[in-house]
Design brief:
63 residues, 71% helix, elongated
Length: 63
């Protein structure tokens, strides 16, 4: 019986694995940066529409 839910262990060298890990961390940091910039833009749009900063913050946190 084979286990279809497990992947075989990686066959890469430690150096390649570390390089891949660094790349993934960099991509995660970039994605977090884009999310933060988007939330800031939404917050500023709410404030520009007349919401108080407290109201805008609550609306952004709810998304």
């Amino acid at each position: 019986m084979t286990d279809n839910f497990r992947t075989p262990p990686p066959s890469e060298s430690i150096t390649e694995g570390m390089a891949n890990l660094v790349r993934v961390w960099q991509e995660a940091a970039l994605a977090a940066s884009h999310i933060a910039a988007s939330r800031r833009t939404i917050f500023l749009a709410y404030v520009a529409e007349g919401f108080t900063e407290a109201q805008a913050l609550e609306l952004v946190k709810a998304v």
